[in-house]
Amino acid sequence: MPPQDAIQDERAAPPKRVLLLTSEDLADDNEVPKPIRPLIEGAEDIYVLAPTLTTWLQWVATDVDRARVTADERLHRVFDHMHADGLAPRGTVSDENQVVAIADALLEFDADLIVLRLHAPGSEHKNWQEHRVAERVRSHFDVPTIAFYFDEEGHVVGREEA
Length: 162
Known about the structure:
By secondary structure, this protein is an alpha/beta fold. It has one domain: Rossmann fold (3-Layer(aba) Sandwich). Helix content is 35%, strand content 23%. It has six helices and six strands, in the order H-E-H-E-H-H-E-H-E-H-E-E. It has helices at residues 4-12, 37-41, 56-60, 65-84, 98-106, 133-140, and strands at 17-22, 45-51, 90-94, 113-119, 145-150, 156-161. A six-stranded mixed β-sheet has the order 3-2-1-4-5-6. The two termini are 24 Å apart.
């Protein structure tokens, strides 16, 4: 068993491989939000997922085309903001079920931290598939997960860690 000091040093090490799921559109600022920046600035590899967020009616009718275009736009805005901050992410538009999207990504990307960018509870933009997503991600994966909740202006209004 390693000494206690070694365990504390390992915990303090910044994550090397960050998986970022973004369900939330960014504010007009051309930057990575300040609360998220320390988690990704030191990462060697950043993989971004932009889930296809359908409405319930789109989901029932399997009408996902508009939601895919919106997810692609969201993904490229995140890339633009990260590039402006000197980061070099990669990523993709992903499944509308965030847990499935993360499971698919983890098959090829061995993340040591999952960061979730979600709409704040009660937000008019919150998607029905975001309901309890942080809890579901934590129950499915043995990877530290931090959820950030954003309001309509793109400001962080909450954070959960586990």
